[in-house]
Amino acid sequence: MPHGGAADLLTAAAAALVLIAIAGALYTHRFGLSHLLVFLIVGMLAGVDGPLGLPFDNHAAAVHVGNLALALILFDGGLRTRWGQVRDGMLPASLLATVGIAATAGGVAVIAKLVLDVPWAQGLLLGAAVSSTDASAVFAQFSASRLKLDERLAATIEVESAINDPMAMVLTVGLIAWMGSPDASGVEVLAPLLAQQLGLGMALGLAGGGLFAWWLCRLPITDDHDGLAALLMAALGLLLFAVTNRFGGSGFLAVYLAGLLVRHRCERVALLSLPGLNGYTWMAQAALFLLLGLLVTPHEVWRLAAPGLLIAAGLMLLARPAAVVLCLAPLRFGWRSQCFVAWSGLRGGVPIVLAAYPVLAGVPGAWRLFDVAFLVVLLSLLIQGPTLAPLARALGLDRPTR
C-alpha cells in the first residue's frame, strides 16, 4: 500500500514540534515562564528564519484556528469558575473589560503616535488589538504560580481576562470598518456593532447555557463517561460559538457565560468533564501558539525592536495602570490590589490574532502593526509572567495555605 510521503512528513514535523515545545515548557516552568511562550518560540524557530525554514503566511488560517482555540479555552474557563467567584468580581471585571479596554487602547494610540508616527486611526487600531488581557495566558500563569489571592481580587482578574475579548474585537473590527468608510463617524460605526455583539452574545450565551444545563442533567452520564462528557462539552461550546457568531453576536462572551451557567446548574457533569477538556484546551493552545510563531518573520520583527519595546513599556507601565486606576479606584480597591491587577494584564494569542485582522483587510501599514503586536505579546510573557508571583508576595497579596 503506497504511503503519502508529503502527508507523513508533515505529520511527523508537526508532532516533533509539539514534543519539543512540551519538553521545553516542562523545563522552563520552574523559572516561572509561561508554557505558551515556549510554543511561540518553537514556532518561530520552525518558521522561515529558523533552522527548518517552513514557509507559512496564511493569516486567515491562523485567525480561524485562534478563534476556535479561544472559544474552547473560554468555555473551559467558564466551567471552572464558581458562581460565587463571578458575583465577587463581575462589577470591577465588567468595568475593566469595557471602559478599561477603551482607555488602554487610547493610551497605546498616543504612545504609537509618538513612537511610530502613525495616523491616529492606525494607532487606535494597534491599541485595540493589544488592549485585552489573554484568558489562556492568565489562567495558565495563575495555575503555574499557585497564588492564593483574595477571592474578589482573583475573580476580578480572571473574569476580566475572559470577558474583555469581545470589546477588543469590536473595537478592532469597528475601526477597520470606519477606516474603510471615511464619511461615517466612529460613533456611528462602533456603537451599533458594540450593542449587537455584546447584546446578542449575552442573550445567546445565557439561553444556550440554560438549555445545555437542562439537557446535560437529563442525560444518563455516569462517572465512567468522563471522556465522553469532555467531548460533549467541547462540541456544545463550539456549536454555541459558531451559532452566536452567525447571528452577529460575540461568540466569545456567549461561550464563557454558557460555561458559567452549566457549572452552576449541572455541576456534577461539568466537573466530570474538566480533566478531559483540559487536554483539549492544551491542544488548542499548542496549535494556536505554534501557528502564530510560524506566522511571524523574525528579521522583520527585529527591525521594529526599539519602537516595539517602547510601546510595550508604555502599555505595561502607563496605559494599563491608568485604565486600572480609572476603573478600580472608585470601587475602593487598595493601591496594592490596583498595582497587581495592572501588572497581571498578560497578553497572549488574542492580540496577535486581532492584529492579523488589519492584514487580512488590506489596511495600509498593517504589517508594522502586526509585528509590533507580536513584540508586545512576547515581552509581556517574558517580563510580566515570571514576575507575577514575586510581585504578589512583595505586595503582601499572596495568602499562604495553612
Describe this structure in words.
It is globular, with a radius of gyration of 21 Å. 80% of the residues lie in helices and 0% in strands. It has a single domain, classed as Na+/H+ antiporter like fold (Up-down Bundle). It is built from 17 helices and no strands. With 402 residues, the chain is mainly alpha-helical. This is Potassium/proton antiporter. It comes from Pelomonas lactea. It is a multi-pass membrane protein. It is found in: Cell membrane. Keywords: Antiport, Cell membrane, Ion transport, Membrane, Transmembrane, Transmembrane helix, Transport.
Looking at this protein, list some descriptive labels.
402 residues, mainly alpha, Na+/H+ antiporter like fold, 17 helices, transmembrane helix
Furnish the topology, listing elements before pairings.
Blueprint: H1 5-28, H2 35-46, H3 59-80, H4 83-116, H5 120-130, H6 135-145, H7 151-163, H8 165-180, H9 186-216, H10 226-246, H11 251-265, H12 267-295, H13 298-303, H14 305-328, H15 335-343, H16 349-361, H17 366-394
Helix pairs in contact: 1-2, 2-12, 3-10, 3-11, 3-12, 3-16, 4-5, 4-7, 4-8, 4-14, 5-8, 5-16, 5-17, 6-7, 6-17, 8-9, 8-16, 9-10, 9-11, 10-11, 10-12, 11-12, 14-15, 14-17, 16-17
Transmembrane segments: 6-27, 36-54, 60-79, 91-112, 163-181, 193-215, 227-243, 277-296, 308-328, 340-360, 372-392
Domain Cation/H+ exchanger transmembrane: 18-393
Subcellular location: Cell membrane
